[in-house]
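ok so dumb question maybe but i'm new to this and my supervisor (M.) told me to 'just get the structure for AAA ATPase central domain protein' and walked off. so i did the thing. is this what she meant?? sequence i used:
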Amino acid sequence: MPRLSLPDDLALLQSAEPYVDVVGALPPWRIPDDWWARTHESLARLAASDTTGTREDWDAYVPGTRRSVHFAFMAGQCLGGWSTILSGEHSRFPWQVVEPFLKPGKMLAPSLSYRYRAELVTWPIWLLDWAGTDPEARENALHASIECLQLYAEVTPFAPAREQLLNLYTQILDVASMRELHLEGDWTRITAFWRNDLDTQVYDVLPELSGWVDAVAWSYEGLAEVHKALDDVVARPLPLADVLAAFVLANGHDAPPAALGTSLGPEVYADVTASVERQRRGFDVDAAETRHRDWIARGLMAGEIHLCRTWMQLASQMCVGIAGLPGVPRHGRGLGTNLFLEDVEETYTARRGRNPYLDGIAERVAARGPQQRPEAGVPLALADGGDDDEGSPDDVPDVVIGDPQADLAELIGLDPIKEQVRRLAAEARADVLRREAGMPDPGRSRHLVFVGNPGTAKTTVARILARIYAQLGTLERGHLVEASRMDLVGEYIGQTAPKVRKVFERASGGVLFIDEAYALVPRDSARDFGQEAVATLIKLMEDRRDEVVVIVAGYPAEMQRFLESNPGVASRFPKTLAFGDYSDDELWSIFRLVAAQSGFTLAYGVEQAVRSLLPRPRPNAFGNGRFVRNVFEEATALQAQRIIELPAPTSDDIRTLLPQDLPAYAPLQDDRAPGMYL
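this is what came out, is it supposed to look like this??
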């Protein structure tokens, strides 16, 4: 498959030319051949001037280095944004600017990227602060600040912030009232002026000047817009509240910082708080970073590299902002910047080689000549005249194992379930290692109980678990066989046990998933053949526990009755996984996923229409994913009625669901209807 090509304005990223790249909305800047020599010469002249003081006890600089040198460093890390990602060969750009003044061993090691952040909201007047109360020293500090910014006059990604600050410094020196304040006023009044009284266009590009809470609010406002734009092209939705909640948990907060509520607003803050509670149990920061990486990589595959770069910049700012709130931003976890850059390289690098085996394969196919295909859907044994053994595991299609852990991570919601499945996988892997080390078999039972309402992905998780066990070698094949009462219980004496054995045989090497298992033992039916089915099942589970994992599923109360129906049942199922109902955000994400998989686009207003149909509070046995699919299917039916009445419907008309296509009322559901699980 041909790879995507970088847009022209980003072509530098794959060139051999030297460049500075501030990952974000602006393109990289090519460094002129003589720029470093000119810049170091200018900085040396500035450092030789006595306009700013020196310091003997720097950690990184040689003793006696002037403070103007450090301000040049601060400008290099802050002009690109209040938290920036610099990538490529010159990811150490601010350090390289001041390299002639660094102590030996203080230069950063080369890296694909570095994240920088402002540490003071008043960083542009840092030199002014160090000048003390002497008016002449303060004026010299302002001139030195201007000279430092002029070092970066050609660096285009720094231009918006640099120009605003240069204009502001000029006004301070030229406007009498501002000059008096900065040369003679006390520091409290000066900082209040910078925080509250600057022109709006200054705060537009330097939001940190009005405080960290405002800086986070500025970044969230942009992130919300770019996230929504990307969500429209990424097939697997990722609620932004879940991303922010992951940043909260990844950086050591028990709950979203109160100051974050000011930045986000009460409604979004409540969504993030709810997501934190859902993710808290078993939260894994590496798994969260993988989810974020996968989602943004899908944006890259959709060709939206500009949106993806902007999302990474703003999400990084939210990450460091949340990590530090209510105080100064600090480096945080939850976002893999190097992983993103690696994905850009993999997605947009043209493949230069050609697999030489292609020619050999083509020659073999040509030499073989035309081949007759078996009839579609007919097993080879039948095509050759053999017998069909319905109870054999051979009639179950082979399963492509793939990457079940990745498929698990991509499921919407279900964070507690995902963590429990990961633990089950870890137990299975550990058992293999212990066995290889000569330790005795622990005789662990892997049979499970899944409880929860319909449509909560119990069957989907069971399929993934089967593949995980096959990947680890715990199960031979990794397929899943679904069974119900009809498949297991006979109508007459002597029919039930053979039916159970036949289904169990088909599940050999995989998972046997029994939906609504309590139907095997109906109330007040002592003479029902279901008891025989349960007894046969228990014996097979014990005799062949290494061949089949049995998962029984259903509503919580009814499953408890099933476990108590036979003394041997509960002991065979040591673990129960409880599937909770989906939140409104997760149900909307499922709707969008179903629509995208069906080729539909959603017009503005559909989200509100879908959310209005979600019942609050949830009724007993709420259908969850099945409810959403019913809503979607009814919407497509209503849309069909609408578009066939159009005189000449366009392709967009056919593919687009409008708010009026949604049903006026939630579709009815049978609260105890079988087969309602996804």
